[in-house]
Amino acid sequence: MKIGDLGLSQPANSTSLDNEIYGIIPYITPEILKLLLSKVSDVFPFSKASDIYSMGMIMWELTTGCKPFANVEHEHSLVYKIIDEKRPEITNDTPEDFANLMKKCWNSDPKKRPSAIRVHDIINYWLTEDNDVNIFNQAEEIRLELIKSKMLGPEFCEKSHSKAIYTSRSLSFLISKSSSSNSPSFNMRQKYITKEYEFDINDINDISNIQSESSEKWKIEDETQDDSNNRKHVKTDTNINTENKE
């Protein structure tokens, strides 16, 4: 089984034909949220790297007894902040090694997140090395003391926002609301659509597919040249023109 989003689990080899995205916003990866808002694709590739990101959030819950981003409404504003690399604040009593692993799991680049095997190896190392075991035992003692003094745990968490939703739901409302020019999130959405992305020349066909699916008009132009390996890079923008520079 795989971690879907702490509300939706499915087999790792699932090939559901339902393209609608479901989930709990704090547990969904930035790359999925970005695709959802930009509307450049009808396919939302949950992956093993997505599971690692979700696991990082669960690790944070274990250290605090709180739910991530419980004090804010789960809507566009939070989504854009997550894309901008906002993550829950790590508490001072969290062991450094544990905190570092969480940060790696939260990396915005899925390729830089550790694999499940790597996570297993790291945790196994913690459990077998005396020094690491002692560090975690000490951290647990501190955590229990903080809980007793009500400085940590559910009672210590900030008041939960009435629109912080922790049940899996369809997130199509993010698309419909961000698409309206009258929506406060429209300009925020435009900010992300006009961001520049680098692609290998081999991905031009993929970009063409994106153009046909998106309601936006894109401009594609060369960004750099690399004579040593005969590769090109392209830049996407929301202008109407399409031009290539050799």
UniProtKB/TrEMBL annotation:
Polar residues bias: start-end ranges: 237-246
Source organism of the structure: Glomus cerebriforme
Protein's recorded name: Kinase-like domain-containing protein
Molecular function terms from GO: ATP binding; protein serine/threonine kinase activity
Key words, A-Z: ATP-binding, Kinase, Nucleotide-binding, Transferase
Domain Protein kinase, first and last residues per copy: 1-127
The keyword Transit peptide appears for this protein: no
Location of region: Disordered: 212-246
InterPro entries xrefs: Kinase-like_dom_sf, Prot_kinase_dom, Ser-Thr/Tyr_kinase_cat_dom, Ser/Thr_Kinases-Pseudokinases
Organism phylogeny: Eukaryota, Fungi, Fungi incertae sedis, Mucoromycota, Glomeromycotina
Protein's UniProt keywords contain Phosphoprotein: no
